[in-house]
C-alpha cells in the first residue's frame, strides 16, 4: 500500500511536466485520465483508512480533511478546465499548487510532515534576520540609484544602467548570490574604478555577513524544532 501510494503521488506531481504549459506536452485527454486515476487511488486509500479508523477519530484528523478538499478542488478544476477548452477559452490549471498536499498528508509521509512542521515553526524566528537583510538591500539600492542614476550610464546591451529603483533592487538581490558578478558593476567600473568599492562593500555586508547569519539562524532553529515532537517530548 505504501509503495502504491507513493507511486501515484509521484505520478500526480509529474503531470505538471506534461500539462500545458509543459516541458514535454501530452494531449489533454491523456493527462486528465492519469490525474483522475491518481485521484481515484487517493480516494480509495482514504476510504480504506476510514474503514479501519474510528469514525470520530477519522473526522477530527485535519490530514484527512486536507486530502478530501484537495481531491474535490482538483476534480472541480479539471472539469472547469475541460469545459473551457471546449469553448476555446484559454485558462490555467490552478489546482496544481494543491498536489503537494497529497505528499504531505498521507499517513505514510510522517517524516515529510515532520520536516514540513519544522520549517513552518522556523519561519517566524528567522523573520527578523530576513527583515534586516531586506532593509540592507533596499538601502544599498537607494545608494546605487543616487550614485549612478544621474550619470547616464548604459549596460553592454545599451540599456539604461541603475535608473529604475525596482530594477536596481532585483539586480543587487541577484548579486547577493554573485550570479551576475562582476557584470553588474562593469558600467560603473568603466566610468570610475572607485565605484567598485560600493559593490565590494555590498557583497561583504550582504553575502558574507547577512547570508552567513541567515543560514546559521535557519539551521539552528530548524534543528531545534526537528528534535522536538509535536507533544513536546524529545526524541
Task: Name the poorly predicted regions.
Answer: 231-235
Which word captures the global form?
flat
Please identify the top-level CATH class of the largest domain.
Mainly Alpha
How many domains make up the 3D coordinates? 2
- Rg from Cα: 25 Å
Helix content: 55-70%
Tell me which CATH architecture of the largest domain applies here.
Orthogonal Bundle
Please tell me the overall pLDDT: 86
What is the strand tally? 0
Distance between the termini: 27 Å
The proportion of residues in beta strands is under 5%
Helices, by number, come to 9
Spell out the helices and strands N to C. Answer: HHHHHHHHH
Based on helices, strands and strand pairing, what is the structural class?
mainly alpha
Largest sheet: none
CATH topology of the largest domain: Helix Hairpins
Q: What features would you describe in this structure?
A:
Pfam families: Ion_trans. One of its GO terms (molecular function) is monoatomic ion channel activity. It comes from Drymodes brunneopygia. One of its GO terms (cellular component) is membrane. This is TPC2 protein. There is one protein chain. The protein is mostly helical and 235 residues long. It folds into two domains: 1-107; 119-228, Helix Hairpins (Orthogonal Bundle). 69% of the residues lie in helices and 0% in strands. The protein contains nine helices and no strands. Helix 2 (28-51) runs antiparallel to helix 4 (62-86). It starts with a helix and ends in an 8-residue tail after the last helix.
Amino acid at each position: 500500500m505504501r509503495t502504491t501510494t507513493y507511486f501515484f503521488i509521484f505520478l500526480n506531481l509529474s503531470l505538471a511536466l506534461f500539462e500545458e504549459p509543459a516541458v514535454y506536452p501530452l494531449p489533454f485527454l491523456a493527462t486528465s485520465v492519469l490525474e483522475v486515476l491518481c485521484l481515484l487511488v487517493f480516494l480509495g486509500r482514504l476510504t480504506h483508512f476510514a474503514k479501519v479508523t474510528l469514525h470520530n477519530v477519522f473526522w477530527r484528523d485535519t490530514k484527512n480533511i486536507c486530502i478530501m478538499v484537495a481531491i474535490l478542488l482538483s476534480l472541480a478544476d479539471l472539469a472547469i478546465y475541460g469545459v473551457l477548452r471546449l469553448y476555446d477559452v484559454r485558462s490555467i490549471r490552478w489546482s496544481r499548487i494543491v498536489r503537494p498536499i497529497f505528499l504531505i498528508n498521507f499517513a505514510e509521509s510522517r517524516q515529510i510532515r515532520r520536516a514540513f512542521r519544522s520549517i513552518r515553526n522556523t519561519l517566524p524566528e528567522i523573520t527578523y534576520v530576513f527583515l534586516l537583510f531586506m532593509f540592507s538591500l533596499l538601502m544599498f539600492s537607494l545608494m546605487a540609484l543616487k550614485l549612478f542614476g544621474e550619470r547616464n550610464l548604459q549596460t553592454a546591451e545599451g540599456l539604461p544602467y541603475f535608473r529604475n529603483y525596482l530594477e536596481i533592487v532585483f539586480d543587487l538581490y541577484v548579486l547577493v548570490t554573485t550570479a551576475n558578478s562582476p557584470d553588474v558593476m562593469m558600467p560603473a567600473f568603466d566610468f570610475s574604478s572607485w565605484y567598485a568599492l560600493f559593490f565590494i562593500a555590498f557583497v561583504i555586508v550582504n553575502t558574507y555577513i547577512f547570508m552567513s547569519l541567515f543560514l546559521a539562524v535557519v539551521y539552528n532553529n530548524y534543528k531545534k524544532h526537528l528534535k522536538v515532537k509535536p507533544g513536546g517530548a524529545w526524541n
